Amino acid sequence: MTTVLQSRTGQSLVPTDLFDRLSNRIAREHDMPVDFAARIVDQALAFLATCGEPHQVSLARSELVDIGWHTFLLYTKPYADFCAEVVGRFVHHLPNDDGDGETDTAGVITRTKDAIRSVGFVVDEELWLALNIQCTDGDDGCRASGERGNENTDSNGTGR
After folding, report:
1. Is residue 89 part of a domain?
2. Which burial class, exposed, middle or buried, applies to 8 when counting CB atoms under 10 A from its CB (0-12, 13-18, 19+)?
3. Residue 62 lies in a domain
4. Number of folded domains that form the chain
5. Which domain holds residue 108?
């Protein structure tokens, strides 16, 4: 017997008014069409939700998806509520500014897209182009921190 996962969207995880607010802000601040900005928000939400699922690989966001995450972080109360309700813990954003780390950009993006699909989300391929991300090998770089917010080790489910 084969189990078929229903395809979910990140948009389905938040109220419509919040989704629209995030999309409109991105469109305005990044001078892009609202429908493209909405796709970014959708994928950022799917990525964040996937960070709460157990998996054995480090995940990374693309540059476009990171725009959605950054924008959501500005709305601290809805972001904290989303993390508690959807992810199960607060997801801290800890950039890796030194540029050291993961060199297989395409590989980490492919693993991330596979993880997102594995939990039933639709992946918008155009938004996941592997462009100059800064990830730290062996942890979660500019992705999700651990429980204390000062380390990047818990989003991959290994606790390392």
Report:
1. yes
2. middle
3. yes
4. 1
5. 15-128
Please give the distance of CA 117 from its chain centroid, rounded to a whole number: 13
Q: To the nearest 5 percent, what fractions of the chain are helix, strand and coil?
A: 50, 0, 50
Closest CA to 19 of 33, 5, 40, 48: 40
Instruction: Specify which residues 121 forms β-bridges with.
Output: 8
Q: Can you tell me the distance from the alpha carbon of 84 to that of 82, in angstroms, rounded to the nearest whole number?
A: 5
Quote the CA–CA distance of 150 and 16 in Å, as a whole number: 32
Look at residue 56 and tell me if it is in a domain: yes
| CA distances for 85 relative to 81, 110, 158, angstroms | 6, 27, 21
The single residue listed with the structure tokens 């069409």 is: 33
Helices (H) and strands (E) in the chain, counts: 5, 0
Q: Express each pLDDT in 81-135 by its tens digit.
A: 999 999 999 998 877 766 655 557 788 899 999 999 999 999 999 999 865 444 4
Do the Cβ atoms of 91 and 51 come closer than 8 Å?
yes
Q: Is 143 part of any domain?
A: no
